Fold each of these.
Amino acid sequence: MDELLEQILRDCHPYTTEGKLANYIPELAKANPDDFGIYIISSDDRINRAGDYNKTFTIQSIVKPILLLLALMDNGIETVREHVGVEATGKPFDAINYSEQSLLSDHLNPMVNMGAIAMCTLIKGESYLERFERLLELTRKLAGNPSIQLDEAVYLSEKRTGSKNRALAYLLKTYGMITDDVEDVLDCYFRACSIKVNCADLAKIGYTLANHGRAPFSGERLFPEQYASYVNAILMTCGMYDGSGEFAVKVGVPAKSGVGGGIMAVVPTRMGIGIFSPALDQKGNSVAGIKALELLSKKLYLSIF
Ligand code: GLU
């Protein structure tokens, strides 16, 4: 299996030059486009890995499923569902366009920024810093890695330049969908996106989702089974941004990507996979990462369809 992974990285390496590094967060443009790594944990406790699986990068949007898990653990499905929807577009079947005049919780998706910013207000904590620290703690626990830290430089870079996220957060405030101080909420969101992980961390977190909430190796229950189903279903339909349909066709497993170049894939009952290659396609997904998952899925019959 390690050889298969080496082979896949070799075959997909040319794709690392096809995408572009995210540069709207200036610090992310400093990544090395040549980095390419993969780490897999399988249900028989086997570990397979290849390439730069040890290199760290910021989690970015892959924190969204963890944020959703914490919101669910703190509030239960019903309350979370009242604030943040589950639909990919939230538009009716005959919608031509929808106006911001009618922004409703059903329009918010937890896997895109507006929904994630709203979710920061759902997690518990005295201050927004404490909320972030609880999220960081959960990330460490799911990854079985107590040394996971914030990337201060990326956090500050994103905080300085995050005008679009500010616009989204103020829109939420305008429609009464968040009531707390916008900058406090955003600070928690920017920190959340700047948690530093590696492929092994993503594989372990993915494995807990694949294994219905139980940790790899120890089998310890980390969160209730129904939350795994809830998160995986949303990852399947929305985890790869507006490339989720294409990804479902070509790879066929729940997954989440981030603009740091990571992808976490969840193969229900079988595997957690972490991949890293920072050059992105126009939708914000790692080009070589998706290619590698496509090859792997074909080889190992991973698609759930
Ligand atoms: N921190 C990034 C942003 O808010 C996350 C985007 C992503 O990874 O999709 O723009």
Amino acid sequence: MSDPAASVASPSVRPADSCVMVICGAGGDLTKRKLLPALCNLAGAGLLSKQFAIVGFSRGARSDDEFRRQLTQDIQTYATAPVDPELWKWFLKRIYYHGGDFKDASVYEKLADRLAELDREHGTQGNFLYYLATAPEFFGEIVSRLHAVGLTREEHGLWRRVIVEKPFGRDLESAKSLNAELRHCLDEKQIYRIDHYLGKETVQNILVFRFSNGIFEPIWNRRYIDHVQITLAETVGVERRGSYYEQYGALRDMVPNHLFQLVSLTAMEPPVSFRADAVRDEQAKVLHAIQPPSPEKVLRTTLRGQYGEGMVAGALVPAYRAEPRVSPSSNTETFVALKLTLDNWRWADVPFYLRTGKRLTRRYTEIAIQFRRAPLILFRDTPVDRLRRNRLVLRIAPDEGISLRFGAKIPGPVMNIGAVEMNFSYVDYFKTVPNTGYERLLYDAMIGDATLFQRADMLEAGWEVIQPILDVWKALPPRSFPNYAAGGMGPPESDELLRQDGREWRPLDG
Ligand code: BG6
């Protein structure tokens, strides 16, 4: 195959710009599990430029060939579909390694020489895409050192962009200072703060569902919606990430990023266009409308949990406190539930209940829109004593789709109502190609479309809401950890959060 990268491009989608992609922290899991398989999928779809190269930048000395050999093994394990050997040969001619300490200035001078050389060799037109996949403490350092050797300078039509992985800060102050540090060296339009939830088709579909259908938007507000429940339940524990998780916990790990993306897409006003800032302006407004809770409210409207030992998929799994690199007396939360209120015209008095946790009974992510009940009056002389709410569920993962629940008459002489579901499943309608979720995000960064990336103000608005919770939780350490068994439903107290409002969660094992 002479030119695999150009093989199957759809005529309407152009390949990405030529560039060298520098993966900082290339020795970590993300490169082998997500980035490399995603690049293969992009190349296989003809969406990568022919003028392309990858530089793995990491601590530890390795030759280019050692790095290529390592990636050749990794891709066999982590590719989402078997990789065409010709395509892989094409990649191997474009993969390089640059070893060195992220704090050492001379490493960046050598990197600049190397990139200039590779740029000439591969015709990448001076465009460099840096992917920060390192531990977060290096983000600011790497960017300022790249800047110091001129590697972030955009001139003569070339571009330099930086993709920043999460976690973006661990509280409001650190998020602000990281933003300030990045912006000291980069223009906002060069910064691509990634949240892999925005790479999911079903998450992108929230906008399409809301704004391409005439029938939902008129009822998408406080007049018709009673409340919204967003669940992101996982069966996995902390795996090998004990030391990261000990510093972050479920609140920081999932809420200001993934869950707030789901909230903002569900609650935002229609943007004037799909341009990056038009969409992000509307998302930012939602985040600004979430009321940062007072300390009393934190006590009433948030709940944390930590898993103990339990059974998952028929096997006994250890408690969080017994996981590797976790303190045996850890107070880090592995479960969070919150009630948010949005102070704006559309959502006043419509609570958004959020929950996420590890080691729960089932893995799924969904947004459930619970509509107001219809009046019962008509049914007063029948055996029907209660009408169930209509409910629309946007299933994000793993069984991707949308369902609508409504009441229907149960056939028979007596008036009785049963809840029935209209169900759409992605797999029934669309040929879904397995992917990593990073394809679209990498492609967008390479063409300069920041719509699916977080802007500084969005992140800071998210942290404004989280900060009071962090403060109260820090001042009042949990007393009952562990408070749920692995493989179970999460802490029983989380039911109280809704019960006090006369509502209940959708069953986790439903
Ligand atoms: C990551 C978190 O950002 O998202 C992990 O750090 C979590 O703790 C993961 O497991 C969940 O992502 P997904 O795509 O599997 O729902």
